[in-house]
Request: fold
Amino acid sequence: MEATNGQSKAGDWQNFERVLLPPIRDLHRLDVYEKEYDGYQAIQKVLREWEPGEVIDEVKQANIRGRGGAAFNAGLKWSFMPPKDDRPRYLACNADESEPGTYKDRQIMEYNPHLMFEGILIANYAMQLDACYVYVRGEYVDWIDHMQRELDKIYEKGYVGENIFGSDFSTEIILHKGAGAYICGEETSLMDSLEGKRGYPRIKPPFPAQKGLWGNPTTINNVETLSHVTLVMRHGADWFSDIGAPTHPGSTIYGISGHVNRPGCYEYPTGMLISDLIEKVCGGMRDGKKLKAVIPGGSSVPPLRADMIDGVTMDADSLREAGSMLGTAGMLVLNEDTDMVTWLRRVNHFYQHESCGQCTPCREGTGWLEAIVTRIDEGEGNLRDLDLLIDLCDQMEGRTICAFADAAAWPVRYTIERFREDFEAKCKPAVFDTGGVAMTA
Amino acid sequence: MPTITIDGQTIEVSGDKPLLQECLNQGVELPHFCYHPAMSAPANCRQCMVEVGTPLRDRETGEIKTDANGDPEIQWLPKLQTSCTVQVSDGMVVKTHRTSEKAKRGQRDTMEFLLINHPLDCPICDQAGKCPLQIQSYKYGSEGSRFEFRKVHKPKRVKLGPRVMLDAERCINCTRCTRFTDEVSGSCQLTINQRGVKNYPITGPGETFDDAYSMNTIDICPVGALTSTESRFKARAWEMSRTPSITTINAKGSNCYYMVRDNLIMEVVPRQNIEVNEYWLPDEERVGWAYERFNDERPEHGPEIRVDDELTPVSWDRATDAASNALSSVSSDAVFFLGSAHATVEDNYLLSRIAEHVGAEAPKYIPHVEPGHGDDWLRTDDRTPNAQGCERLGIHPVDAEVLRSRVRSGEIKVLYVLEDDPVASGLFTAEELEDVVVVMHYYNTTNKTLAATDVALPAAMVVETIGTYVNEEGRAQRVRPAKVIKEVNRTLMMATGKSRTDMHGTPFDRWHNESHQVDCLPGWEILPKVAAHLGLEFEFSGPKAIMLEVTEQNPAFHGATYEAMGLQGHRLEDVGETV
Amino acid sequence: MSEFNIKKPVVPLPDMDPEPQIPEDELFFTEEELEQIERYKEKYPTNRSAVMPALWMAQQKFGFLPPEVMQLVADALDLPYAHVFGAATFYTQYYKEKKGTYVLDVCCSFSCQACGSYDVLDYLEEKLGIHAGETTEDGRFTIQEVECLGSCGTAPMLQVTNGPYVHNLTEEKLDQLIEDLRNDKMPPFTSVTLPQDEDEMEGNRRSDVEHTDTYQTPPETKRWI
Ligand SMILES: Cc1cc2nc3c(=O)[nH]c(=O)nc-3n(C[C@H](O)[C@H](O)[C@H](O)COP(=O)(O)O)c2cc1C
Ligand code: SF4
Ligand code: SF4
Ligand code: FES
Ligand code: FES
Reply:
């Protein structure tokens, strides 16, 4: 179904039946998951009937686009793994979820952790992996304990560990608790962190598939991505790719926050109209105020002005055309009272605080950006500072080891570009001192 | 071997090194900070950026596509690449800052970032004048700064350990120092603290950076963040001349530069020799006594002879005369020659020749072996630089017991000592030597044997002479004069002029001060004088000729001419156990 | 803003000659703890990987991670001390100095900023008489400004001592929280009901949780930074 302007690609979303978070009481419990949600049927079928390579093909065909931010086809990523040799091979499940505005993976971890575990088992089988490390941000301690309880159960039942489900395939799942570092969500930094080092992103190449955890072939996938894997293997690739936006199919969890009446995490097909999400799903803007900005996918994506969201849907392609990105689908909605300068200043602070500090442009640039925007916010900035900010973005983007520096620069570049009047209102007029006589330009 | 094109010039490269190294090897300078050939490449400084393209291949045939002119079509990577992490491939095309505006901008932009929080205190920084950051910012940076904020204030004057000081504000977080302790020395004593712009290297609180190789971090630090507690604030880089030589505190023969100002050794820094010490020096070569023995504690009065039980200064002629008189005053079996593992091959050779001439037994040397001192790397149990050279000359370790009893019994009446200290070595007490006439070539006034010496001949040290040492592994290496002595002969003068440039190769040495010239002579000048009085005329024009004769006559030195040794030494053939 | 201020950026040096802060007779791991560390090690191919769980365990036991505790962890894992120190300083949840018994981590990032987190911070600062980054004199409370905690829909929110989340903060809720904590009553785990579950299941789907909350319209924001 081709979306025309103003139409959601999510089809009949009002009648959509949730699949990641289906309305089943106590679904997080193993017995419920098994009894009421066909739990661990897909993996058993896969073990019985599918060759590993076929699973990869099926997942590739389903086109699950990575839900961690980069929207890369998961099956395609799996296919980059080298043929099995005598080295151990790993999956890292990215549950670091630290992108500001993002809180959707936690919903799966709380309400449907077995869907993720089953997806991990399928992935491990498809790529013939020895183990999966689930890297969960340290702040999610309650959910880690919660998941560990469920994980212990499936270990006990032999769903994971030696010869799972009586097959000749053995694989492990290990939960790892982070300790407060946004950058560890970046896939290679996550690997350094798992190795017990400072979480420094690594240069690519070599890619994780060639040289990942402890130097061995590794694939990294997001929690939601892996959860979808279970559904794909349960219902088939065609079923999956029929949901939502054709080029970015499936359902997704929209984590909406900010100045709306009813924020929260909602599961709907991809390709929802942003306006539908705000007006129909979240009950409209708080106090009936006007919309000023939408940041559709976490702090790292370019903000959209209210007048830019007409007909824009929540999928990679539509958002790219609109001048932003889907990111994590963690959407922040800001109303007309928002001063974008003050808002940006705090975003800059985040990146200054979270830069790992390896790369010169990122380490120095993030602090410099914050310093300039702070000065503007405090009424001490000049108009030329705006040009300098854009220059600095040019100097940071595409010049670093990981995409963090880009993520730090984009909000600056696009907030200035799209909300320039907020900045101009705060900047001092340019003054040239011509020797006793001040001249305003 | 792959062929790549850099700025339009096609060259052959080894193919096993990163692009940056290949460029540097070809003399194409690329600015860089974090890359070091001996360590992993983190690519964190982001300074070495270039444009990289590869020939476009036809998907089906795998053939390289060509354009209308028949030139290969090049697919350029959209982003600038850090050349230190680019693995070269055949046909790769590279544009550096010399031809690419984009690369030039990339480098300039990184430089601007590097400098915003840098204190720019070059006028008081020890690194100024040799600082990669300073040099490269002049060459590749932009003028002025657009940074109008407070710089991040970080800890300064932090004593990381006994030998290394940190100024964290100067640090550019290249992690060379932490990688050194992790990957090279293995002490793992340094880490980066905190993250982001708050980063800086440090030891864990309470831990002392006492790595036996800690000072190498000073050398590889591309800024003045790490300085030597000892030589900090003592001399500016441009005030010192730099002489390629080797260190002599152990038998490794690590290659070094002696940095000299006003005839004082200010610093000893490593000199690259992949076969010997790669890029490194142990700390023991450059602290405390390693300098004092060259600068202080040197003889002040020239040669001396004992008159009325007092050492009294005399001319070199009278002193060498006295030495030969002593040798000819007794029968040849009452004379004993001690060679030296501190002295050069040339000097030991001449000593052997004299011993032979007077009919005495072949010289022996005092071994200085300290079991457990070595570390299978750049420190050895042997604390002398030339035991191998002695052995190859047929000079073997002295049997202390036998020699002592021969002295006690009065059998030995004259002891000729080359550049050593038998008393300090525990061979004899000074009293035991009372009735023996002792002639000694010595370096330092702290020499304990001086109390029993009758003819004291100040000898030029490794930093003042020319000669050859053979390290533990049988590598013959040349030393060159790094500082001048009072009586400079033609040979030394020529060598000094050639060896003493400043670190940028400027061939004049403006920093010498007559007051620090020691009145000493190299062994190869003293020994011929002594020999002449004994009727043995050496016809050598200098140490080079001596060495030539050694190589011709002694197969254990085959091929070790001065030309062959050059700056990297000459590996001698193994001769097996020589004793 | 948190401790490091870009307007006056100062990075202090840790005490490089530190006095031990844990009494010597308490500075050890018990047999059970050492066994636990062994189990951590077994989860990974290298000892080094066990550093994060071991630091967590040590922090649980000693309250914070002074140098002697990092050394203890290093010894238990047979790792260089600097590696442990380097890792510990990279991650903000490890306390490198002593904190209050209750650390109130107020998220002031992104969504929370837009939904009144600085008003929460103001209120707490006023109420406890300290600034963010400081600890009350009685050693009970530390307030910290932190980055996104992954609960943006219930902004403003906070986390207590790396533990439970408290959602949808209001002044009344904060008063209650402080009072409870003064009586050493930690807030319970609270499950936030999915809006779609509210509609389709009439409430929270979990029957094993005692405390639930729902997403609410965030309050007006007075102070933005
Ligand atoms: C700075 C940075 C932070 C990231 N943080 C996260 C994160 O918290 N969670 C996540 O799933 N992916 C994160 N990513 C994306 C991962 O690098 C990676 O692309 C993803 O985990 C791959 O999984 P997917 O293909 O299933 O999306 C981050 C990327 C960057 C550059
Ligand atoms: S871009 Fe920033 S966060 Fe990423 S590796 Fe470089 S310094 Fe670290
Ligand atoms: S101290 Fe020097 S070597 Fe170490 S990280 Fe800083 S700049 Fe690099
Ligand atoms: S030298 Fe290449 S990035 Fe530092
Ligand atoms: S912004 Fe506060 S929890 Fe995400």
The radius of gyration of chain A is 23 Å.
